[in-house]
Design goal:
The complex is a heterodimer of chains A (115) and B (116). Chain A is 0% helix and 50% strand. With 115 residues, chain A is mainly beta. In chain A, strands 2, 4, 5, 6, 9, 10 and 11 form a 7-stranded mixed sheet that branches. In chain A, strands 1-3-8-7 form a 4-stranded antiparallel sheet, with no helix packed on it. Chain A is globular, with a radius of gyration of 13 Å. Chain B is an all-beta fold. In chain B, strands 2, 4, 5, 9, 10 and 11 form a 6-stranded mixed sheet that branches. Chain B has a 5-stranded antiparallel sheet with strand order 1-3-8-7-6, with no helix packed on it. At the A-B interface, strand 5 and strand 10 of A face strand 4, strand 5, strand 9 and strand 10 of B.
């Protein structure tokens, strides 16, 4: 089954403790992206990757890191989480962002709480 | 730069009533438009998309949307709401602003409640 898989689904951590949220897609998509969803703010893009070894900042990149060493994986790293990073996070992939009508496929989300 | 405005963060309808969710966009070039649906505790799923051609687009679950260039709108409708339609709906626009990479920008979402 074609899908984007995120882990974990739920994560509670403390301020400053490094964490990684994994994302994997099995559709051979070139493009992958991370979003955070907050009430009243919709989805905001954190980072994106046009292809392997190519990553770039989205609209809200502060406090996050990503890497794209393989085509299928795109982990999100929080080196020193803070309470304002408490949010619902989504990974998404697309065949290519040079194709304008290529839709995004989303994972089921990771709900992160930082205390 | 493109932007998307969804009028009404919360829409409530009765079961069997018309669903109308509004979306207006601004884009510097002809846009590609999408509607996504998010059911509780799930990721976003593609409902329908407009690229070129017919301005009335049919999607899954009986939804459709009409692209109106003169009004810069892409409103989502369904003739008769069902309880299972209760979800959050996001409008999105994809354009390149002249470059080769297309960015997808989302609206802030509209929560649809369906009352029995």
């Amino acid at each position: 089954e074609a899908q984007v898989t995120q882990n974990p689904r739920y994560l509670i951590t403390v301020t400053g403790k490094k964490l990684t949220v994994t994302c994997s897609q099995n559709m051979n998509h070139e493009y992958m992206s991370w979003y955070r969803q907050d009430p009243g703010l919709g989805l905001r893009q954190i980072y994106y990757s046009m292809n392997v070894e190519v990553t770039d900042k989205g609209d809200v990149p502060e406090g996050y890191k990503v890497s794209r060493k393989e085509k299928r994986n795109f982990p999100l790293i929080l080196e020193s989480p803070s309470p304002n990073q408490t949010s619902l996070y989504f990974c998404a992939s697309s065949l290519s962002r040079t194709v304008p009508n290529s839709p995004l496929h989303f994972g089921n989300g990771t709900r992160l709480t930082v205390t | 730069a493109q932007s998307v405005t969804q009028l009404g963060s919360h829409v409530s309808v009765s079961e069997g009533a018309l669903v109308l969710l509004r979306c207006n966009y601004s884009s510097s070039v002809p846009p590609y438009l999408f509607w996504y649906v998010q059911y509780p505790n799930q990721g976003l799923q593609l409902l329908l998309k407009y690229t070129t051609g017919a301005t009335l687009v049919k999607g899954i679950n009986g939804f459709e949307a009409e692209f109106k260039k003169s009004e810069t709108s892409f409103h989502l409708t369904k003739p008769s709401a069902h309880m299972s339609d209760a979800a959050e709906y996001f409008c999105a626009v994809s354009d390149s602003s002249g470059g080769s990479n297309y960015k997808l920008t989302f609206g802030k979402g509209t929560l649809l409640t369906v009352n029995p």
